[in-house]
Design a protein that fits this description.
The complex is a heterodimer of chains A (229) and B (207). Chain A has 229 residues and is of the alpha+beta class. Chain A has 8 helices and 4 strands; from the N terminus they run αααααββββααα. Chain A is elongated, with a radius of gyration of 20 Å. Chain B is mainly beta and 207 residues long. Chain B folds into 2 domains: 28-109, Immunoglobulin-like, CATH 2.60.40.780; 124-200, Immunoglobulin-like (Sandwich), CATH 2.60.40. Chain B contains 1 helix and 15 strands, in the order αβββββββββββββββ. Chain B has one helix at 3-23, and strands spanning 26-36, 42-46, 50-54, 58-67, 75-81, 86-92, 104-109, 124-131, 137-141, 144-149, 153-161, 170-173, 179-180, 183-189, 195-200. In chain B, the strands form 3 sheets. A 7-stranded mixed β-sheet of chain B has the order 7-1-4-14-15-8-11. In chain B, strands 3-2-5-6 form a 4-stranded antiparallel β-sheet, with no helix packed on it. In chain B, strand 5 (75-81) and strand 6 form a beta hairpin. Chain B is flat. The chains are: A alpha+beta (229), B mainly beta (207). Chains A and B meet through helix 5, strand 3, helix 6, helix 7 and helix 8 of A and helix 1, strand 1, strand 4, strand 12 and strand 13 of B. Strand 3 (144-147) of chain A pairs antiparallel with strand 1 (26-36) of chain B, so a sheet runs across the interface.
């Protein structure tokens, strides 16, 4: 039987889920699954790629890495997987999903604090670039503040990409925990950032983006699960 | 229960939720400035997990998030030498310093028996811009157009007069004049002109 290229690829993958490419970003035509990539992957990793490997590969086609002509080098993949492991499936699976009623409740409070002066942000978020109290909706001495899908960022930090990634990490945490987010956060210790799990994630994400400006934004990760690197 | 009591209860509940929220996911940015005035490599750790490795006689500057409201609590910092031995552990209180827009966590590691390194150069810097995207970008410092950076390329602008605070004045625009957000940090040797690194990316161009 002569199979098409696509069919060969689909059979090579140990999952029954169809391969899904994102059509809304990057290239207008998603790259055709490439048997050479599968062969290279097998040679490098000693196993068949799964659907998550394919999605990660597609991401590397949408955003340049640090190698010649924007190739992703081995160390780029290591940084990327560090980010993925740090966020974990619980948060990554919330990308592209707005969250439940609990998240909506907190988003509403954030919108109120921003006096509804919100701009559309990535992945269903809304961002207010504001000033500190009393001129704006952000508490004194504060740079960023997240309420559900609403992010308030100090106007002077508009270009601060690592800070946005930190706040977006909180968005994913809200989506995961729902109405229980704030009580759980407080249980972790407000000023105890050495141990508060929500801030531990946030500051590490921020540091990764500070040192690796080439990394695609978190919301571009297509998570289908099953990372097995 | 009367409508007045219900309304009052709702107001109190809303107040409590907002008060709790003020404490949650409320972040302040600090400038972390580490100066290694010793002749050995060191590693500085914050939050028991963020590690910054420095060459002898060198400086690193980065931004780091911390609690958003005054807690009175310092940042726990530990410093290890090249041999892994702990050189110092301390709670560092953020302070306001000239040349920085944010509270500064200053970690200065002196050499025992006198400074082993050249004096730091102040009031001037090199802006090293790395473009990880595949389109040309224009770099602005306030109202001054510094120039362009080619796709997947790096350009150093300067020396320019100023301090780390001026990094906040950098604006990067793509061909359609859209602002691009970026990451910034500094790394340089004491005695050299400070090098402030800025990097940014964007999706590959449609093919």
């Amino acid at each position: 039987m002569i199979a098409t290229r696509n069919r060969v690829i689909f059979r090579a993958l140990p999952t029954s889920k169809p391969l899904v490419a994102r059509h809304d970003v990057g290239v207008s035509q998603p790259p055709t699954p490439d048997p050479d990539w599968v062969a290279d992957f097998r040679a490098t990793h000693g196993r068949d790629p799964n659907e998550q490997d394919w999605q990660d590969y597609l991401l590397s086609l949408r955003y340049p890495g640090t190698g010649p002509n924007g190739e992703w080098l081995e160390r780029d993949w290591q940084v990327y997987y560090r980010l993925v492991d740090l966020l974990g499936g619980d948060l990554l699976s919330r990308i592209g999903k707005p969250g439940g009623h609990g998240t909506g409740f907190y988003s509403g409070i954030g919108a109120f604090l921003a006096l509804w002066k919100l701009e559309p942000g990535p992945d269903g978020t809304r961002i207010a670039y504001a000033r500190n109290f009393p001129a704006g909706g952000i508490p004194p001495n504060t740079t960023g503040w997240t309420w559900g899908n609403t992010i308030l960022i100090l106007e002077s930090e508009r270009n601060n990409r690592p800070l946005l990634m930190h706040e977006y990490t909180h968005v994913l945490q809200y989506r995961y925990k729902g109405i229980g987010y704030v009580p759980n956060y407080l249980k972790g210790g407000v000023y105890n950032w050495d141990n508060n799990p929500y801030e531990m994630q946030g500051v590490e994400v921020q540091q990764i983006y500070e040192w690796n400006p080439w990394l695609p934004p978190i919301w571009e990760i297509v998570w289908v699960g099953g990372r097995s690197q | 229960m009367g409508a007045g009591k219900i309304a009052r209860g709702l107001v109190v509940a809303a107040f409590l939720v907002i008060a709790a929220g003020i404490l949650a996911a409320c972040d302040t940015n600090y400038d972390l400035v580490i100066e290694n005035h010793t002749d050995q490599r060191i590693a500085v750790t914050l939050y028991d997990r963020l590690v910054y490795e420095l060459q002898p006689c060198s400086v690193q500057i980065a931004s780091i998030a911390g609690p958003g409201t005054p807690s009175g609590k310092g940042f726990r910092v530990s410093v290890r030498g090249g041999d892994g031995a702990t050189l110092a552990q301390a709670e560092v209180q953020p302070q306001r310093l000239e040349g920085y827009t944010q509270p500064v966590i200053l970690v200065r590691i002196p050499q025992e028996g006198g400074d082993a390194c050249p004096a730091p150069v102040e009031g001037v810097f090199l802006l090293v811009v790395r473009n990880y995207s595949q389109t040309e970008a224009t770099i602005w410092l306030g109202d001054a157009r510094l120039g362009t950076v080619a796709p997947l390329d790096q350009t150093a602008f300067g020396p320019l007069p100023g301090t780390w605070a001026d990094v906040k004045r950098v604006a990067i625009r793509d061909a359609s004049n859209t602002l691009i957000s970026y990451s910034a940090r500094a790394e340089y040797s004491l005695g050299d002109i400070p090098r402030f690194f800025i990097g940014f990316t964007a999706p590959r161009a449609r093919q």
